[in-house]
Every structure is written in structure tokens, then in C-alpha cells.
């Protein structure tokens, strides 16, 4: 039996270690790369060159070990998220029966989950986020420390993204949020676009149940959640003027991403706008190497293929115009001389011709 105080202390320790890894080890590692680069016969031109240059670097080996195992301890260790939630299973399952939640939710018991989704325990989440009835709770708790530098002093990045949508789009009438998970990305949208009808789409029934439960508690009236693939939502042609996703593209192989772009185009009315927040812009070989190696250590095999895609060409091929690919500031000052490790946050937007 894990007591609450020990669980919190252990998770706080892991978060502190992750912050040290982010703010201290990463800048030192980048400096060691710079020094090796300065004496190398040829400058590193790609991630493979950086990997060869840093292969025997002890600091990198320690950095990589910590990245892999801090995440493992977070989810599966003695005081990990999975065992902590396991011992509260009955209580958590009962919480999903909140009054009104069922009316916000449409599940598909016959939905066949794609192999790319079920073949890996994404984020090292034991069993993935789709099979266990309490997986949504585990995922929600784990997501709180995805970006350890944000802390409590910054506006949540999901709300920052929603602010961009509000500023660029204004009064949307119908919004589809693809890969909505447990609703963290969707809530700022249905709160911000109060006059819009919002639909959150995801593959995970446990996550969708938690999303609907939280929306019912918030007495939201303009949101519905639907279990479906982002590549084939089952929604009507031209049913919305905005399509969004947050941290979804990098969890899909390129063929599925292309299908998602095609589905987004189909869902949008003429003149509608699509906007995805994800990880894409990697301006130098070291950043690309670190991103690709994170992909391997965190069980996210499609990060590198996404980064290799010519997104602008893919969107153009799908029929979109006014394509924009811009860096995203997940916290105040994150793009200004930031030395700490961070994801390559990027907003990818495009419009369906009017």
C-alpha cells in the first residue's frame, strides 16, 4: 500500500530530478557538443553526425539514462503513477459515472484501434492509454509534468494555444478537436469559443470518459466527445469552420498524418481553418539529434518521421492554402535565449480555399 504523502514526495523528487536534467545537464551537454564540434574534421550536418560525435560522451550517456528511467520511475516505479492509481481503482472508476457525462459522450465499442496506436506503450504508459478503465486518470496525472519548466507561474500551454485560435479566428461556430485525449486541449476551446459547438475526437474510451466527466462537472453545454479515429471521424462533410489538434501528429506515422490532413480538409467548410500544435521546427543538427533520441527513449516512434516530413508540401497536396508553420512559445520567454531543454513547439496552420 502506498500512502499519499510518500507518493507525492516520490513524484516531487522525480520532478526535481527532471528539472535538474532540463536546466543543468542539457546546457552542459550542448556545450560539450560545441567543443567537440569545434575540433571535428567536419562539422555535424545532421542527427546521425551528432550521434557519431557524441557516442562515447559520458555526460550524454548519463543524460540519456536519466531521460529514459525518470519517465519509467514516474509511471511504473515503486511510487509510480500506475501503482498509485491501481490501489484507487474502484474509487476512480466510480468517478466516471458523474451525472450528465453520458449525454456528452458517444463511444464505439466496435471501433478497431489502429496498429500504430496499440503496438507501443506510448510515453512508457503501461499498457498504453486505451485499455485500462482508469488509463485516463493515469495519463492526466502524468501530463502535469510533461513540461517541467512551466510550473505554476505560466499560463497553461493549452490556453495559450486557444488564445492564438481566438485571436486569429475570432467567432468560430463549429470546432473539431482531434486527438483530444482526456480533454485538456479541448477545455480551453469550449471555454473560449462559448458560442461554438465543439466536438472532441479520440481513440481512447477511458480518456474520453474522463473528458466527458470533467465537462459535465464544469456544466459545459457546448461540447460533445466522440470515439473515432482522427483519420476517419465519421462526421459530416463541411461540418466545421475550425479543426485543431494538440500533440497528436507526432504520435502518428506519415500515412496516418496524410489521412488526417485529408480528413481535416473534408471536415472544413470552404474558408475554414486547420491549426495543429505539435513538435516540428528543429533548426540545427544538435536539436534534431536530441529530439530523435528523445523519441526512442520515451516510446514515441513517430517523432522523427514527422520531423522529416515536408509539412508545407503535404498540406499543399491535400488542397490547403495560406499555410503557416511558426514556433510556439509555450511559456513567457521560452523562445528568448532559452538554454534549457524544451520540445520544438510549432503551430502548423492552413486554410481550405473559400
Question: How is this structure best described in words?
Answer:
The chain is of the alpha/beta class. Helix 1 (4-39) packs antiparallel against helix 3, helix 2 packs across helix 12 and helix 7 (135-143) packs across helix 10. The chain folds into two domains: 4-85; 157-351, Vaccinia Virus protein VP39 (Rossmann fold, 3-Layer(aba) Sandwich). Strands 1-4-3-2-5-6-8-7 form an eight-stranded mixed beta sheet, sandwiched between helices. Strand 5 (240-246), helix 11 (254-267) and strand 6 (268-279) form a beta-alpha-beta unit. The protein has 14 helices and eight strands.
In brief, what are we looking at here?
This protein is of the alpha/beta class and 354 residues long. It is built from 14 helices and eight strands.
List the helices and strands and how they pair.
Elements: H1 4-39, H2 47-54, H3 58-76, H4 81-86, H5 89-95, E1 105-106, H6 115-118, H7 135-143, H8 157-169, E2 174-178, H9 187-192, E3 197-202, H10 205-217, E4 223-227, E5 240-246, H11 254-267, E6 268-279, H12 285-297, H13 303-308, H14 311-317, E7 321-327, E8 345-351
Parallel strand pairs: 1-4, 2-3, 2-5, 3-4, 5-6
Antiparallel strand pairs: 6-8, 7-8
Amino acid at each position: 500500500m502506498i500512502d499519499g504523502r510518500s507518493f507525492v514526495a516520490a513524484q516531487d523528487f522525480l520532478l526535481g530530478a527532471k528539472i535538474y536534467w532540463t536546466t543543468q545537464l542539457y546546457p552542459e551537454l550542448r556545450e560539450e557538443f560545441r567543443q567537440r564540434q569545434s575540433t571535428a574534421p567536419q562539422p555535424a550536418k545532421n542527427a546521425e553526425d551528432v550521434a557519431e560525435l557524441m557516442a562515447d560522451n559520458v555526460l550524454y550517456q548519463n543524460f540519456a539514462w536519466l531521460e529514459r528511467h525518470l519517465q519509467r520511475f514516474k509511471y511504473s516505479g515503486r511510487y509510480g503513477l500506475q501503482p498509485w492509481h491501481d490501489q484507487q481503482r474502484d474509487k476512480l472508476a466510480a468517478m466516471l459515472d458523474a451525472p450528465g457525462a453520458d449525454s456528452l459522450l458517444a463511444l464505439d465499442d466496435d471501433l478497431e484501434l489502429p496498429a500504430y496506436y496499440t503496438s507501443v506503450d506510448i510515453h512508457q504508459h503501461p499498457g498504453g492509454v486505451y485499455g485500462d478503465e482508469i488509463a485516463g486518470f493515469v495519463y492526466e496525472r502524468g501530463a502535469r509534468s510533461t513540461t517541467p519548466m512551466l510550473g505554476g507561474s505560466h499560463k497553461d500551454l493549452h490556453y495559450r494555444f486557444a488564445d492564438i485560435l481566438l485571436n486569429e479566428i475570432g467567432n468560430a461556430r463549429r470546432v473539431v478537436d482531434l486527438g483530444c485525449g482526456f480533454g485538456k486541449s479541448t477545455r480551453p476551446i469550449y471555454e473560449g469559443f462559448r458560442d461554438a459547438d465543439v466536438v472532441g475526437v479520440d481513440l481512447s474510451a477511458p480518456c474520453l470518459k474522463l473528458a466527458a466527466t470533467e465537462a459535465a462537472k464544469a456544466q459545459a453545454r457546448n461540447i460533445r466527445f466522440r470515439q473515432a479515429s482522427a483519420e476517419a471521424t465519421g462526421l459530416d462533410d463541411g461540418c466545421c469552420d475550425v479543426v485543431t489538434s494538440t500533440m497528436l501528429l507526432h504520435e502518428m506515422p506519415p500515412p496516418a498524418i496524410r489521412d488526417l490532413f485529408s480528413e481535416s480538409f473534408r471536415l472544413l467548410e470552404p474558408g475554414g481553418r486547420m491549426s495543429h500544435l505539435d513538435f516540428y521546427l528543429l533548426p540545427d543538427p544538435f536539436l534534431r539529434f536530441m529530439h530523435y533520441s528523445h523519441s526512442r527513449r520515451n516510446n514515441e516512434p513517430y517523432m522523427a518521421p514527422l520531423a522529416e516530413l515536408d509539412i508545407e508540401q503535404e498540406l499543399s497536396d491535400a488542397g490547403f492554402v495560406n499555410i503557416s508553420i511558426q514556433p510556439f512559445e509555450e511559456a513567457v520567454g521560452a523562445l528568448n535565449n532559452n538554454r534549457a531543454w524544451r520540445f520544438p513547439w510549432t503551430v502548423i496552420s492552413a486554410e481550405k480555399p473559400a
